[in-house]
């Protein structure tokens, strides 16, 4: 068993048993101002159902308020340190939901209705008009942690727009199994799995009569349930954030979010763009960073008609700042177009690459901009348009 597979096994164990000190215990949060404003946030303890934190001034301006982003906990608080505010924080971009104190520092606790697993959560510190964020240990507030998914799900593009769903079982030598029959002219371009319900969702492109539709996919039979139009024309990628919101990229519209696909599939445009195509998107496990693999194109070129994709660009979007920044101008050792992107527990990115023969799986190290393709799956499904790779599914050696 290699190091990455060990990491995945540890991740599953933490999700199941909730080790209280499994993640960062003290973090330094710096704010983007000219005073080098910095605060230290400490995870002090988790005793029973009670979570305790301490925030301290380090440098620069005084603290205005701090918060933990805990969207799943909003109805689960029993008690908390005086002055706490529960709900949305409109003073921070994206209106994060959690528990907040207006304070200059101190020790703060809250008690929940039961014990929950420890997971990485966002901590935000604000001073004047600036704020910064970091990842620290916090409660999941998920009552019954779902079992680790052990299969990878993907969709193959046959010809122009025929779609075939299939599964890959890493535990059985990356065996491939078709899920139902081909869907002619559906043009499915993106997949992802809901982080808590484990429902598999799919999005369609523009080479279909149902342009930009969102679907639920039966993971046993491949049967589709059409949830309706999102309002965008072509969905290139989908990724669930840890709060259950579904984010995507539309070639004609840009970055969008669907607040709750179980109740409405209407897309809200977050970053408008009509010139960029991405292969796929992936949220970091703590919900702080969204990664994207951008498909290159010449000025005026239709991305759907390009002949040679060339090196792809990896960039990230950080909701706390609203900024998009480039991580890698060109990924090295790239052997084809990236069509699937998922974040692993060690902050590397699992990828699927479609090529001339078979399906290539591998890992991107954002620190080195190197793509290492370490497994070729023997299959005729070699034009994968979307992939859902659960964090607990094994990584190719």
Automatic annotation (TrEMBL):
Residues 1-24 form the signal peptide. It comes from the Bacteria. InterPro entries: WD40/YVTN_repeat-like_dom_sf (IPR015943). Gene3D superfamilies: YVTN repeat-like/Quinoprotein amine dehydrogenase (2.130.10.10). Keywords: Signal. This is SMP-30/Gluconolactonase/LRE-like region domain-containing protein.
């Amino acid at each position: 068993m290699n190091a990455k597979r060990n990491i995945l096994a540890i991740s599953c164990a933490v999700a199941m048993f909730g080790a209280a000190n499994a993640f960062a215990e003290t973090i330094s949060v710096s704010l983007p101002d000219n005073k080098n404003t910095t605060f230290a946030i400490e995870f002090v303890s988790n005793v029973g159902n009670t979570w305790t934190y301490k925030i301290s001034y380090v440098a620069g301006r005084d603290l205005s308020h701090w918060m933990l982003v805990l969207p799943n906990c909003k109805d689960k608080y029993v008690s908390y340190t005086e002055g706490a505010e529960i709900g949305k924080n409109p003073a921070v971009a994206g209106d994060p939901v959690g528990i907040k104190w207006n304070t200059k520092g101190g020790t703060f606790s809250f008690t929940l209705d039961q014990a929950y697993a420890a997971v990485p959560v966002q901590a935000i510190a604000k001073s004047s008009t600036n704020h910064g964020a970091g990842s620290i240990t916090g409660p999941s507030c998920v009552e019954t942690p779902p079992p680790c998914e052990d299969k990878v799900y993907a969709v193959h593009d046959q010809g122009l727009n025929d779609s075939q769903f299939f599964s890959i079982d890493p535990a059985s030598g990356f065996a491939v199994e078709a899920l139902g029959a081909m869907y002619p002219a559906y043009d499915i371009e993106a997949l992802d799995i809901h982080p808590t319900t484990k429902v598999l969702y799919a999005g369609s492109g523009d080479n279909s009569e149902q342009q930009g539709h969102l679907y639920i996919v039966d993971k046993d039979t491949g049967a589709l349930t059409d949830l309706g139009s999102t309002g965008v024309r072509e969905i290139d990628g989908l990724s669930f954030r840890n709060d259950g919101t579904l984010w995507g990229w539309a070639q004609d519209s840009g970055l969008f979010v669907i607040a709750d696909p179980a109740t409405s599939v209407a897309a809200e445009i977050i970053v408008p763009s009509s010139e960029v195509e991405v292969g796929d998107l992936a949220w970091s496990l703590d919900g702080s960073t969204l990664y994207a693999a951008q498909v290159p194109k010449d000025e005026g070129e239709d991305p759907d008609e390009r002949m040679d994709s060339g090196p792809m660009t990896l960039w990230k979007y950080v909701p706390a700042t609203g900024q998009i920044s480039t991580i890698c101008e060109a990924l090295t050792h790239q052997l084809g177009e990236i069509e699937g992107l998922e974040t692993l527990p060690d902050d590397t990115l699992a990828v699927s690459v479609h090529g001339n023969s078979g399906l290539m799986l591998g890992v991107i190290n954002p620190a080195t901009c190197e793509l290492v393709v370490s497994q070729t799956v023997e299959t005729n499904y070699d034009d994968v348009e979307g992939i859902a790779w659960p964090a607990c599914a094994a990584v190719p050696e």
